[in-house]
């Protein structure tokens, strides 16, 4: 296996979804693409991708935004992992997480999917749950609002003011996870708030 990392930003395709909480993973990847000074291009794996290195001579990364809907994210992720010879322990899924407060990050390796259909599909397609997750907190729905409806809404006015900082932290977390490992990234970002 190669030492390449595959970073998948989860979300739904199309401009109608671009500002949704469910698409925060893709927002993080847009920021990482800016940092790599690159542009996403189409791939045969039903995704747009960008290949680059973190820093001069740093680890090789493939950033991927699946063009499928969230529930069928596993196909593009597993296809890209096979194509780039990336083992599951070098796959990072960046996704929205309603079980942690807005403006909070949690990182983990493996574990359950917490009802997240995108993660469930990736686990099924990879044949393992042992891949990394950068969980971007979007908070719980207010009152009795259905969580599925909540994540398909755009961030609120107050949240939008904080969102650039959250995206920046999430991009930093991805980079630190790759360059320094899970424990270092957890120590920095789990204690941050």
Automatic annotation (TrEMBL):
<dbReference type="InterPro" id="IPR036416">
    <property type="entry name" value="Pept_tRNA_hydro_sf"/>
</dbReference>
<protein>
    <recommendedName>
        <fullName>Peptidyl-tRNA hydrolase</fullName>
        <ecNumber>3.1.1.29</ecNumber>
    </recommendedName>
</protein>
<keyword id="KW-0820">tRNA-binding</keyword>
<comment type="function">
    <text>Hydrolyzes ribosome-free peptidyl-tRNAs (with 1 or more amino acids incorporated), which drop off the ribosome during protein synthesis, or as a result of ribosome stalling.</text>
</comment>
<dbReference type="InterPro" id="IPR001328">
    <property type="entry name" value="Pept_tRNA_hydro"/>
</dbReference>
<feature type="binding site">
    <location>
        <position position="69"/>
    </location>
    <ligand>
        <name>tRNA</name>
    </ligand>
</feature>
<keyword id="KW-0378">Hydrolase</keyword>
<dbReference type="GO" id="GO:0004045">
    <property type="term" value="F:peptidyl-tRNA hydrolase activity"/>
</dbReference>
<feature type="active site" description="Proton acceptor">
    <location>
        <position position="22"/>
    </location>
</feature>
<feature type="site" description="Discriminates between blocked and unblocked aminoacyl-tRNA">
    <location>
        <position position="12"/>
    </location>
</feature>
<dbReference type="InterPro" id="IPR018171">
    <property type="entry name" value="Pept_tRNA_hydro_CS"/>
</dbReference>
<comment type="subunit">
    <text>Monomer.</text>
</comment>
<feature type="binding site">
    <location>
        <position position="71"/>
    </location>
    <ligand>
        <name>tRNA</name>
    </ligand>
</feature>
<feature type="site" description="Stabilizes the basic form of H active site to accept a proton">
    <location>
        <position position="96"/>
    </location>
</feature>
<dbReference type="Pfam" id="PF01195">
    <property type="entry name" value="Pept_tRNA_hydro"/>
</dbReference>
<comment type="function">
    <text>Catalyzes the release of premature peptidyl moieties from peptidyl-tRNA molecules trapped in stalled 50S ribosomal subunits, and thus maintains levels of free tRNAs and 50S ribosomes.</text>
</comment>
<comment type="similarity">
    <text>Belongs to the PTH family.</text>
</comment>
<feature type="binding site">
    <location>
        <position position="17"/>
    </location>
    <ligand>
        <name>tRNA</name>
    </ligand>
</feature>
<keyword id="KW-0963">Cytoplasm</keyword>
<keyword id="KW-0694">RNA-binding</keyword>
<feature type="binding site">
    <location>
        <position position="117"/>
    </location>
    <ligand>
        <name>tRNA</name>
    </ligand>
</feature>
